[in-house]
Backbone:
């Protein structure tokens, strides 16, 4: 074999190994302010830049001509650092300058990493062909570095960030094109509603007091008033409305049957900071849109009790709760039948093993409670965004609907979705056990339509209904 052919083989193998090493070992993690990212390159791809944002999806665009796919994946969010950044009120220009400076530093480190991988590919390629000879090793190294810098240079020279004005979306982010416009509309609407909700709650309380003068429900100081909420879905108005209802109606505790967030991401946990200062017990049962991150965040708050499976006694009210199966991960889709059956069995076992039977069962999705119909006096749930109160086999079933008016999704709906909560009145019987005697449902529509207050009275003979 001629020397020329040997050198050709050295160059070809060195280039191949350089590309292989860059693709396989070219990922690097880095921090940019409060965000931790991982960058990686895939060679012989379609000139894409891709942002992966678990669990909500992917944003990508064809930004350059070189055959490289640049992938940036969000790994973690430091909530404390993010909170400090938001509290610091740094100007946008200063923040952009700091980010640009840090990005340049990270870029230089990444190019250095890729260069080292290219050099390793060149040296190993030469060794595999000729053994430990200096000249072929230098040739392989130079060829690999030239290829590396050619690809990076072509990427830089042809990079067009304007392509992200019309990106492609995958996963839940497919909703992004309409969501951007919807959010712009919603922000103004939410701000307006937030102020009006305080007035609305005060008016509701005045009406409520008049109703109680005519038809009092709770008679003793140790009777309980429990607020049932569900499916707030990050709606800031829902949190304001909740606080106002709790204050205006002197609620004793809150039971939240889940879906307090949309995707269960740590960032959404920042929206729940208001619960940290809650003055009354707040019992939370995770839904399919919640996640271990949200459970961890809420568990830090002193008045919040997160129930994933078990019985808790709050002010003499025994609550059996079971989290939605999907809340154990970032998977939003409802679980399959096999998992649901397993959770039904767990719930039934907890009920059967209880020495003192619970006064109510609280879950996100009603489907795991069906075996206990006729055994428990009351089941609280949500999930469907459709308010309902009914009885089946002697068990009262209450779906609080959606306290957040389905969040941003509510703005898509062809039919208006109201903000809804249910006030549960428990009166203590002769054995000092709390029994449900009435449920007041409050539904707030847009500002033109106002609100409805509906009371249902419960007796052993059935359900009496009165609408206000």
Residues:
């Amino acid at each position: 074999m001629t020397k020329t052919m040997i050198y050709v083989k050295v160059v070809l193998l060195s280039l191949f190994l350089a590309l292989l090493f860059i693709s396989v070992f070219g990922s690097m993690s880095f921090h940019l302010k409060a965000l931790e990212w991982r960058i990686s390159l895939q060679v012989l791809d379609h000139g894409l830049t891709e942002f992966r944002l678990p669990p909500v999806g992917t944003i990508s665009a064809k930004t350059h001509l070189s055959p490289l796919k640049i992938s940036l994946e969000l790994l973690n969010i430091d909530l404390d650092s993010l909170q400090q950044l938001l509290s610091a009120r740094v100007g946008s220009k200063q923040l952009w300058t700091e980010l640009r400076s840090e990005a340049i530093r990270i870029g230089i480190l990444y190019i250095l990493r890729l260069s080292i991988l290219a050099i390793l590919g060149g040296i190993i390629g030469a060794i595999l062909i000729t053994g430990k000879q200096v000249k072929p090793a230098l040739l392989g190294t130079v060829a690999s570095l030239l290829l590396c810098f050619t690809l990076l240079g072509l990427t830089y020279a042809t990079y067009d960030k304007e392509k992200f004005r019309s990106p492609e979306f995958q996963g839940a982010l497919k909703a992004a094109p309409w969501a951007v416009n919807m959010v712009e509309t919603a922000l103004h609407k939410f701000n307006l509603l937030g102020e009006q909700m305080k007035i609305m709650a005060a008016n509701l309380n005045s009406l409520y007091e008049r109703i109680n003068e005519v038809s009092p429900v709770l008679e003793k100081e140790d009777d309980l008033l429990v607020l049932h909420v569900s499916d707030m879905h990050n709606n800031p108005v829902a949190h304001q409305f909740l606080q106002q209802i709790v204050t205006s109606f002197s609620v004793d505790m809150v039971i939240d049957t889940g879906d307090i967030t949309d995707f269960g991401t740590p960032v959404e946990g920042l929206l729940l900071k208001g619960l940290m200062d809650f003055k009354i017990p707040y019992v939370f049962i995770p839904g399919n849109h919640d996640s271990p991150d949200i459970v961890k965040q809420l568990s830090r708050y002193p008045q919040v009790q997160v129930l994933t499976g078990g019985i808790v006694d709050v002010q003499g009210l025994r609550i059996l709760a079971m989290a939605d199966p999907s809340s154990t991960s970032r998977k939003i889709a409802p679980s399959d039948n096999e998992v649901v059956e397993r959770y039904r069995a767990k719930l039934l076992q907890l009920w059967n093993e209880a020495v003192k039977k619970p006064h109510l069962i609280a879950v996100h999705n009603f489907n795991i409670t069906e075996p206990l119909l006729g055994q428990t006096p009351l089941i609280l749930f949500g999930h469907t965004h459709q308010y309902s109160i009914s009885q089946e086999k002697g068990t009262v079933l209450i779906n609080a609907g959606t306290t957040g008016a389905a969040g941003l999704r509510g703005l898509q709906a062809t039919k208006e979705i109201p903000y809804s909560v249910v006030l549960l009145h428990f009166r203590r019987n002769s054995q000092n056990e709390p029994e449900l005697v009435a449920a007041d449902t409050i539904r707030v529509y847009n500002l033109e339509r106002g609100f409805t207050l509906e009371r249902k009275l419960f007796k052993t003979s059935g359900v009496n209904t009165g609408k206000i």
Remarks:
- Residues 3-166 form one domain.
